Amino acid sequence: MPILFVASIAMQVLCVVHAVRTGRTQPWIYIIIFLPAVGCAAYFFVEILPGLANNRRSRKVFTDVTTLIDPDREFRERKAQVELTGTPAAKAALADECARKGMFDEAVVLYRAALTDPFTDDATFLMGYARVLIEKGDFAECERTLDHLRATNPDFSSQEGHLMYARALEGQNKTVAATAEYESLIGYFAGFEAKVRYALMLQKQGSVIRARELLDGVVQAYNRQPRHAQSLNRDWYAVARRNLEA
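Below the sequence we write its predicted structure tokens.
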């Protein structure tokens, strides 16, 4: 009983502090103080929860929790949308969800169905299709798709597309062409993925000195970053560090 009492007081204090800091004292202070349990619950659902839902990090947490509870919900909703409308956009959205679930063959079929007139040259759909192909390991088709994208959308620019192109060449053992693309890419690519992927390719070729130079540069750059930037780059930093220590 004392634990529940202490917890109730703590919740009241937290809610009051939040109300004061956010300028929501009226009428919440009285509700929280005179109706402790009901007041705190009402304040959380009315004032705190909507703010959390609008926060980028919180949205991700909510999405992850929802996915954990019902992992097929998004798939069902997107599939229903395809059955209801049959639009290229709905097919592309379902394809992306299929790819997320590792259903790459289904994703390819859906993207091919979306990439029909008048959307054969649509840059967004072509990028999505290339993304599925690179994850599926169909490197030749990915290269052809990105070549088509570049030919039909000359003003389109995407560092993600450039990275996929380099990976597609690497996957086909077109080493010279892949090296040229990676060298061009690492000069402007945001984040560490391009440098780490390039370094791993160089390691396989036996270019150990250049590979370690790139990996060491990633580690040094990461250590100089502010904390929020480190959280975005932690995964590729970890790969770089593991390969340096190997």
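The chain has three domains: 2-67, 70-168, 186-246.
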